[in-house]
Amino acid sequence: MRVVNHPILGEEKRKEYVTIYYNGKPLNALAGETIAATLMSAGIRKFRKTPKYKRDRGVYCGIGRCTDCVMVVNGKPNVRTCVTPVEEGMSVETQIGYGKGEE
Amino acid sequence: MKETQVVIIGGGPAGLAAGIEIAKSGGKVTVLDENKKPGGQLFKQIHKFFGSREHLAGTRGYEIGTKLLEETKDLGVDVILDAPVYGIFEGKTVVYSKDGKQHQIKGDKIILATGATENTLAFPGSDLPGVMGAGAAQTMINVNRVLPGKKVLMVGSGNVGLIVSYQLMQAGADVVGLVEAAPNVSGYGVHASKISRGGVPIYTSHTVKRAMGDGEVSKVEICELDDRFQMIEGTEKILDVDTICIAVGLSPMSEIAWTIGCDFTFIPTFGGHVPKHNENMESTIPGIYVSGDISGVEEASSAMEEGRLAGIAASEALGLYSEEKAKELKGQVWNRLNTLRDGEFGEKRKQSKNVQISRYMEDANE
Amino acid sequence: MNRGVKFTGVPSMEEIKACPGTPSEERFEKGPVVAIECVQKIPCNPCEAACPFGAIEVGSSITNLPKLDEEKCIGCGVCIPKCPGLAIFKIHKNYSEKTSTVEFPFEYLPLPKKGDQVPCGDRFGKYIADGKVLNVKNEKKNDGTTLISVEIPKEYFMEIRTIYRGGER
Predict the structure, then answer these.
(1) End residue of a domain, out of B193, B215, B246
(2) CB contact under 8 A, A1 and B172
(3) Which of B246, B278, B297 is the last residue of a domain?
(4) Using a CB-CB distance cutoff of 8 angstroms, which residues of chain B are in contact with residue C61?
(5) How many independent structural domains does chain A possess?
(6) Cβ-based burial of B264 (10 A; exposed 0-12, middle 13-18, buried ≥19)
(7) What is the CATH number of the domain that holds B53?
């Protein structure tokens, strides 16, 4: 959910949108925001599954230090979505385990 | 290879304040930051700061951040972003990565201002999406304008837990409660009063027993603790939440100081292991200074002052200030630092800082 | 029973009555006045410079609790949005025979409108009584801190400090 009107920050002024693809599904993203922000704004919080027990993980630290939020971005695994800005046409996929080259 | 007089690692309040002081003294300085935007945690602080007029009291954190950035621009401080530093080698050569390549920059002096990182708390279900650091929630709501969830349990009653609870409510979330393991509220009364007025119950002597949900948080079980912090059977309460924010303290991000061999000491008030330093913020390695949360977790206002202190001291060591001028400037900063460390909350930090400095002096006199 | 701000996060009535920012009972009777509910010594003093009449004193040690000079205070409320702790309120106890007014700082949305009936809450956010919104001031110079003035039943002038935000607690 996006905060459209905020008592201190005021109204949302950003107007430029791009489209990213989450597991093939198109999502509206604000240009320049992080992938994690786009996904969370759409209520998506499960970003990947852990290697052994396949448990769901998502944003934990939010500033690029814990790596809990990594996903496969444009085919590349282990991309920290909380510090990576979206780009038009970007593909973002749930990472299963270590991603590519696991076995 | 690039060379300069001072390399500052970390572009948050401490690092930027240090850069400003070096530039004011006429020195050449480069600030490196791993993020795409400078300012550290400052731009997430949408509440009004405390302190005196000199500390810009009454000004919102992000406005203070903007002022700092403008000053660095006006003074021509070189700020390199998206540049994580991963080592300091012989001859004070700082190595960082940028655009997929390795870069090196050599400084006569180095100031470490890398800040702190949030602590974590383990409980059954603590790995579920929806459990996140309070700082992560703060980044989401104040920087990205995105709600990480709608119904939140906050864990921890320090200033971070209290302030982020308030900010979550401002962003439109419902904070259904705040749990604190200790029998008292550990942050400022005025911050706690704001959320209490907003209807948030503060459960002291309570903790999280487990988080539940199918792939993400949908409920949390809290329970009361006895005076030995043991869970009391039968006091469990289940709350409907989709988000659990963890605000159980910060720890200095001091890896780089460890790797280059700075001496450390353990001070619980400051978050654990902190590098020893003297009154000039100089570590046990000559020419390497520390400032801000890396030298001990406090707050943004004291981080800025410590940054100024390290900057002035480094300028003095470079011969850019006379001993007399430096003494005057450092004295002013120490006065302001001592003021910030006054009162029932600050007193412990003041004593701890004295201990930290005295341990450096013990080594120095051996 | 409120054991005090260190235990509950909310100052007890004893702590409030004992703090130097709270006016005396006689002063409350005389007309509008501010109540500075600041009970912990933290380094902070913007309220002192905010008062155009010099009615607030913190002093050279900025951890001192702000002291209100009841004679100098005319209850203008200029200090309210200056307090970073949002701890200052303007009280007009004898606004009318049966009602008082309380002006408090408010930093949420939605804002009520002048004339609205609103549920009012105490320092614990507990519902106390309905009040009528007399004024909503959202001036740019107050940097996002809106001032809301409500008319409430007089018996609650020392309790009501906010708009009740609802929900089962």
Answers:
(1) B246
(2) yes
(3) B246
(4) 342
(5) 1
(6) middle
(7) 3.50.50.60
Q: Is the Cβ of A9 closer than 8 Å to some Cβ of chain B?
A: yes
- Per-residue exposure over C42-77, b if at least 16 CB sit within 10 Å of its own CB, e if not: bbbbbbbbbbeeebbbbeeebbbbbebeeeebebeb
pTM across the whole model: 0.96
Note down the domain range covering B271. 2-117+250-364
Q: Indicate whether B135 and B224 sit together in one domain.
A: yes
Q: Facing residues of B206 across strands?
A: B224
Q: Are residues B113 and B254 in the same domain?
A: yes
CA gyration radius, chain A: 14
Q: How many domains does chain B have?
A: 2
> Which residue segment(s) compose the domain that A44 sits in?
5-96
Q: Is C124 in contact with B172 (Cβ distance < 8 A)?
A: no
Backbone angles phi, psi at B291, to 5 degrees: -160, 150
> Residue A13 maps to which CATH number?
3.10.20.440
| Contact (CB<8Å) B51/C40 | no
Flag whether A55 is in a domain.
yes
Task: Assess whether B113 and B125 both reside in one domain.
Answer: no
DSSP assignment letter at A34:
B
Residue C105 in contact with partner chain A when CB distance is under 8 A:
no
For B15, B83, B84, the CA distances from B33, given in Å and listed in that order, are 9, 5, 6
Residues B101 and B196 in one domain: no
Specify if A102 maps to a domain.
no
Residue B272 and residue B354 share a domain: yes
Pick the residue of A6, A9, A11 with the most C CBs within 10 A to test the interface with C by mutation. A6
Q: Are B214 and B267 found together in one domain?
A: no
Contact criterion met (CB < 8 Å) for C107 and A6 = no
ipTM for the complex shown:
0.96
A39–chain B nearest CA distance, Å: 10
pLDDT for B55 equals: 85
Under 8 Å CB pairs connecting chains A and B tally to 93
Q: For residue range B150-195, list pLDDT tens digits in order.
A: 999 999 999 999 999 999 999 999 999 999 999 999 999 999 999 9
> Hey, where are the domains in chain C?
5-163
Number of residues written out for chain C:
169
Of A6, A45, A63, the CB nearest to B129: A45
Chain A contact for B145, CB < 8 A? yes
Q: Are residues B125 and B240 in the same domain?
A: yes
B59-74 tens-digit pLDDT: 999 999 999 999 999 9
Sheet holding B237-240, edge to edge: B206-212, B219-224, B237-240
A36, part of any domain: yes
∠ CA A52-A57-A60 to the nearest 5 degrees? 130
Interface with C, mutate which of A2, A3, A8, A9 (most C CBs under 10 A): A8
Q: Which two tokens stand for residue B77?
A: 């401080």
Q: Of C45, C143, C162, which has the smallest distance from its Cβ to B197's Cβ?
A: C162
- Distance from the Cα of A14 to chain C's closest Cα (Å) equals 20
